[in-house]
Amino acid sequence: MAYVNPSGEFNRDQRYIPTRITADGRDGYPVEPGRYRLIVSRACPWANRAIIVRRLLGLEDVLSMGIAGPTHDERSWTFDLDPDGRDPVLGIERLQEAFLARYPDYDKGITVPAMVDVPTGQVVTNDFSQITLDLSLEWSAHHRPGAPALYPEELRAEIDKINRFVFSDVNNGVYRAGFAGTQEAYEKAYHRLFDRLDKLSGLLETQRYLVGDTITEADVRLFTTLARFDPVYHGHFKCNRNKLIEMPVLWAYARDLFQTPGFGDTIDFVHIKQHYYVVHRDINPTGIVPAGPLLANWLEPHGREKLGGRPFGDGTPPGPPSPAETVPAAHGAI
Questions:
Q1: Active-site residue, from 29, 36, 44, 277
Q2: Which residue from 22, 10, 47, 59 is spatially nearest to 266, judged by alpha carbons?
Q3: pLDDT below 50 — which residues of the chain?
Q4: Residue 239 known to be catalytic
Q5: Which residues form the GST C-terminal domain (predicted)?
Q6: Class of domain 36-142 as given by CATH
Q7: Residue 11: what pLDDT?
Q8: pLDDT value at position 15?
Q9: Does the annotation flag 251 for ligand binding?
C-alpha cells in the first residue's frame, strides 16, 4: 500500500461522509444515549481528538468507544485488540464492514474516527472535524456536570481561524512533508510547517492557550500533532529542523496539556510508533519500530501556570478513565 505521491505534493482525500448526528435528528440520526459507537485507533491523531473531547465532556456513558489496533492493511482498521478479533458491540472484524453495510460500493477511505449506528451496524460519519464539534454542540444535554466549553460561541470565529491554518500547515503539514514524492514538494511542506510552528510559538509565549484563557477545540487539535512529533514526525516524516523538545515554548505548552486530565492519559506512544513505522512501508521498508525517544520528560514541570489561564474555565477536570479505556502504563510517558 503506497502513501507517497511520486509526482510530488501529497493531497489528502477529504471526501468524508457528511451525515451528522444532531440533537434534532435532521439527517436521520438523532442524538440518543447508547445508540452510537465511536470507533477509534489510539495511533491516529484525528481519532485522538475525538477520544480527548469525549473524555473532557464526560460522554463515556452515553457514547461507547471501540478501539482498533494500531496497524491496518488496504482493507481498513481491524479489531485485533479484542479477544476474538471482533468489536464486542458491533461484532465485526474490520471497520470496513460498517462502511459497506451502508454503502456497498464505498470507494473512499475507511478512516477513524467513525461513528457507527449500533442497531443497523452502519457507519454514520467519518468527518473527523465535524464529529468533535458536534460532541460539543449537539450532545450538550448529555455532558457531565462541569464539562468545559470547548467551542464557546463568542470564541468560535477565532477558533475556526486558528483551526484552519493549524490543519493546513501543521496537522496535515507533517503528512505533506512525509508523503511528498519530490524534493521540491518536501521542502515546500517542511518550510511551511516550521514557519507555522514558529508563529504558534510566538503566540503561545505570552498566553497559555491558543484562544482565550481556557482549553478549547483549537488546543485539542494542535496537541495531537505535537504529541506525535518526536516519536514519529521528526524522523519518519523528515520534519527534522528541530525536535519538539528543542522548541521551548511549544514543548512547555505540549507538556502542560499532556499533564491535564483528558489529554496525556489518552496517548499510547507504543501504538503511535507501531502505526507509522509498520504501516508506511514505502517510507520505512523494514517495518522496524524505533526504540526511542525517551518519554519520561513529558512529566517534567512545564511552568506555564505563570501565564494564568483556567484549563477548564468554570468547569472541572474529568475523572480518571475507566479500566477498559486506560492506556497501559508501559505505553505512556515512562
A1: 44
A2: 47
A3: none
A4: no
A5: 152-279
A6: alpha beta
A7: 79
A8: 86
A9: no
